[in-house]
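PT: before anyone asks, these are the final sequences, not the draft ones from last week. 510 residues across everything. Please model them as a single complex and drop the result in this thread when it's through.
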Amino acid sequence: MTIMEERRYCNPDKVYVSVKAVFYPDGGFKPTSLIWEDGCEYPIDKVTDIRRAASLKAGGTGIRYTCRISGQTIHLFLEEDRWFMERRGS
Amino acid sequence: MKERVILHSDLNNFYASVECLHRPEIRDKPVAVCGDPLLRHGIVLAKNYPAKATGIQTGEAIWQAQQKCPGLVVLPPNFGLYLRFARLAREIYASYTDQVEPFGLDEAWLDVGGSCQVFGDGREIADRIRTRIKEELGVTASVGVSYNKIFAKLGSDMKKPDATTVITSDNFRQTVWPLPAGDLLYVGRATKRKLASRGVTSIGDIALADPAGLRSLLGKWGEVLWAFANGLDCSPVVRMGEESQIKSVGNSITTPRDLKTDADVEMTFYVLSESVAERMRQHGFKCRTAQIYIRDNNLCSLGAQGKFPRPTQLAADLAAKAMTLFRAHYAWEKPVRSLGVKGTDLVAADCCEQLFLFEDEERRRKQEKIEATVDDLRHRFGHFSIQRALLLQDEKLGAINPKEDHVIHPVAFFKEGRLP
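LR: through. Structure below.
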């Protein structure tokens, strides 16, 4: 019998994504596009809000970028050095 | 004098809450974060509310907890993650005041008297902090607001989770005094028993008792508790950064198996001394006194200390001193479960030093260089890249890495040198 569960956080609703970003010469950066798990790249039209926020659905906390992508609003989280998104629906 | 505005923020079920945030699938189940049973740390460190409802208590053995709650989800601790959340919480506190005094990982006192003009009164600031912790960290906090640290801490315990409790100089007799004496900071099991023997069972009883009588019963703590109960505590909230003034460097460990011989103990002392010495070098200190702490497998503990002829930061000196103290103070009636070594009486490592006439000073310099080189090697190639041959005698004991395994140290309300 195992007494203790493994230490792993694999949540199907937490989708780690690749992100392309522009780094400005005076510091700071802005994500410009993201690559979803299916390999499609989506350009980010606009970042409308940046703040620290927790994601209860995906399970975690990070800097939350509210982005417009082809007319839709999505949340992109920077958790330490990884980017994740919440899976929609389900 | 203007009354102080002090907040005590307590992150509810901290370890369990952080785990539940990261694992949505277990949020509604009873969850307990426990130490590793194989290393004999198998006790409940934290639990969530469903687990609490089954009567599980912090400090219980895992098997006891599982008996109370067969469906319990038992998780190993992830201290790195908890440290990150504690740091993020402190960043939130720091946006309201620079007077933040952490009390362990999940609690902190804040003196917000200076920022009430900007952010509103104590309750408003407490509510803002709670909201931010919930939104930004995904966990909850209870905050107590009062005019002293003791009542602020009591307040944060009164309503949970995610609530603000205000205790004022007008209402503390109604709110605080009916509480059991054991709720007061520093009333432990022994004190509670002594108080109960005199019919003192509530905080109000302590407050109304004769301070001289309490002193004769409990020593100087009696008067301190009396002052606490009457809201007369005036200890300041330490400013950020000030609390880091290091008074001692120490390390203790519950060993993977009970220690039965002097050789076992010596090995463990070397492991601990190496980590203490390394940390002293890191911070640029030497110590003039060594302290040891011994706990047998019946959980009885004792401490002892001894002075060095001159300040040192050598692991060899520390371990030898620890061993001398151990031999002088421990009679081996029971096997040993935990050991600790601490260097105190710190002085700056680069201060002037009295040389000894009849000792080989050159050899000492060399010894210092060797130990510093070992630090360097370990930093570059890992802790186990170089080890004392002594530690190879026992795989389990030699494999302890106290510096990296133990990132969390208990704290005391009255730090050394600041007793009332």
